[in-house]
Every structure is written in C-alpha cells, then in structure tokens.
Specification:
The complex is a heterodimer of chains A (224) and B (100). Chain A has 224 residues and is α/β, with parallel strands linked by helices. Chain A is built from eight helices and six strands, in the order βααααααβββαβαβ. Classes of the chains: A alpha/beta (224), B mainly alpha (100).
Chain lengths: 224, 100
C-alpha cells in the first residue's frame, strides 16, 4: 500500500483555488475549537438564509451569552461570509471547510502525518480515480477520510471506495482505518446509511457531534 | 396569556419540519431520504415532548424556536430545504437544552 498525490487535472486545479481561499482556513480554525452549538450555528448559517446577524443571535441565544459569545460572534461572521457566496461557490467552499477542519483536528493527534487529496495504491489493483480528501500517513496506522458537508452526500460509491480500500490494505497485511466525516447531525447520517448496503467491514462515521474524536483516536465505529 | 410549553414549541417545529419536507420532496431522487428525515427527527422531537412537554419555556427559548421556524418558511429551493430538514430540528433541540 502506498500513497500518491492526486492527478492535477482541471478539476483539481480549480478546487485547489477554493481550498486555498483564506475564508476556508479561517472558518476551519474557528470550527476546530467550537462546541457542538457553534458548529450547528455554522451549518445553519452556511445553509444560506438570513443575512441579519441579530436573527441568528435570536435563534442560538445560549451561544451569545457569557465567555463563549466572542467565539460565537466570530463563527457567525465567517459563516455569513460563506452564506453570501453564490450557490455553486458556497457549496464548494463548504466542502473545503469540512476538509480543512478534518485536517486540523487530525493534526492534533498526528502532527506531520496529514496529507490532502491523496490516492492509495495497492499492488495489482487498479487505482481509484477519486482521491481521498484527508489521509493520515503513518506506517502501520494509516487512515483515509472522505469529507461531506451533509448526510445527503453519503452514497453507495463513497462507502464502497472506503470499504474496498480497507479490504485491499488487509490483503497486503496493512492496516488502514477508513471513515466518513460529515458536517451534519448523527441522526441524519444514520437515516441516510440505513438505506445503503452495509460495508463488509468497519467504515467509521464522524458527525457534528463527534468531530473532536478525530483529535483523539482513529474513527472506526459504524453507527448501529 | 399562558406561558408556552416545550410541547407547544415541539409542535411548532414539527409543523415547520413538515412544511420543509413538502418543499424538499421537489427533489424526486431524494424522496425517500426526505421521508426518512421526517420520521427520525419527528420521533426525537416527540420523545422530548413526551418527557418534558408540560415544562414552561423562557421567552428567549420561545423566540429562538419561533425564529428558527420562520427562517425555514422563506425557503423555496428544495435542495436548501433538505439541508434544513437536518438543521432545523438539531438547532431547535439545542435551543430546548436537548442533544440532537
């Protein structure tokens, strides 16, 4: 098993520009330190809607009381900037934010081992075209993550790719932890997954409620 | 006027959620997912109403839930409605002091 940079095709070049947007880094940094409430606020605002900050303060009153008010205000300000983007750009930026957030949380646990947009190659196996959004590349303890803004982004092909990669790693005597990171509620993800075929082995699920686990231990459990 | 209760607010969210689902059903390929979201979140919200339904809520909490539902009432794009089918109940539960 070995890792390789994804091909720099036209899509990758355009998306790299989105990933490099300072707004993405700013949002990811704030969300890495946010509570579940702060992350839910960000998701709500970035869904697109009211541009009035006071409306959001009314909707999430507890976030704007006490010592957390400053951090919540910063999240709200960044989220409103994302929400103000056109639909297509906003969608790309939101995805890039989830990837950058995942990268930051993983880096707390495995500094120096985190890579982005990587393919995983196995001997005698045709390589997948779609790269993994975030990887942890450590001998004997590699991890691969596919990141989604919402549970709706979970599909059979995504699960299959992660599952097959994990199986191919086992066939080579390697260990590869694979997981989905979804910036959405666990309950919605579970509803989505319930209609899909179960993977042959463990494919982890990290949701809004459990993002901080990325900084603590590899995500291996699939929801029941 | 009697103080609002948790059940009152849950009923408000359920009505808002159902209206959102009607918009989200505009994405034909996601009809099942929309239905599933309606089922799982309704069940969670009704659980809260069953256990805390008679509890009075503060004016701040009531305003939060009413504003959340109002936010979704302006949505006419089915894709955005699907995004909110997950977010509305999660945010409303947080406003009620509950885990999503």
């Amino acid at each position: 098993m070995r890792f390789q940079d994804a091909a720099r095709d036209a899509r990758a070049v355009v998306y790299a520009g989105v990933q490099a947007d300072p707004l993405v880094a700013q949002a990811a940094e704030l969300l890495a330190g946010a509570s579940l409430g702060g992350r839910t606020l960000a998701r709500a605002v970035m869904n697109g809607g009211s541009a009035d900050p006071d409306a959001w303060r009314t909707m999430f009153p507890s976030l704007f009381e006490g010592p957390a008010a400053g951090a919540s205000g910063a999240i709200l300000a960044v989220a409103l900037r994302v929400a103000a983007l056109g639909d297509d750009v906003r969608s790309q930026v939101r995805g890039a934010i989830v990837e950058a957030l995942t990268e930051r949380l993983l880096a707390r646990r495995a500094p120096g081992a985190i890579r982005r947009e990587r393919r995983i190659l196995f001997d005698g196996v045709t390589a997948e075209i779609h790269p993994y959004d975030v990887t942890v590349e450590r001998p004997g303890a590699a991890e691969a993550y596919d990141c989604k803004w919402g549970a709706r982004g979970i599909g059979p092909e995504v699960l299959l790719q992660l599952d097959v990669a994990r199986g191919n790693a086992i066939a080579e005597g390697e260990r590869l932890t694979v997981a989905l990171v979804v910036f959405d509620a666990r309950r919605s993800c579970a509803a989505r997954l319930a209609r899909l075929s179960r993977p042959s082995g463990p494919v982890g699920l990290v949701t809004l409620e459990s993002l901080d686990r990325l900084a603590g231990a590899p995500a291996v459990a699939r929801p029941g | 006027m009697a103080a609002l209760t948790v059940r009152d607010l849950v009923e408000r969210v359920l009505a808002g959620h159902a209206a959102l689902a009607a918009v989200g059903e505009g994405v034909a390929d996601e009809w099942q997912y929309v239905a599933d979201l309606g089922a799982v979140w309704s069940a969670r919200l009704r659980d809260v109403a069953a256990t805390r339904g008679t509890e009075s809520v503060s004016s701040t909490t009531a305003a939060a839930v009413h504003r959340l539902v109002a936010e979704t009432q302006a949505i006419d794009d089915p894709h955005r409605a699907i995004d909110w089918l997950s977010t509305l109940p999660a945010a409303a539960l947080l406003a009620l002091g509950e885990a999503p």
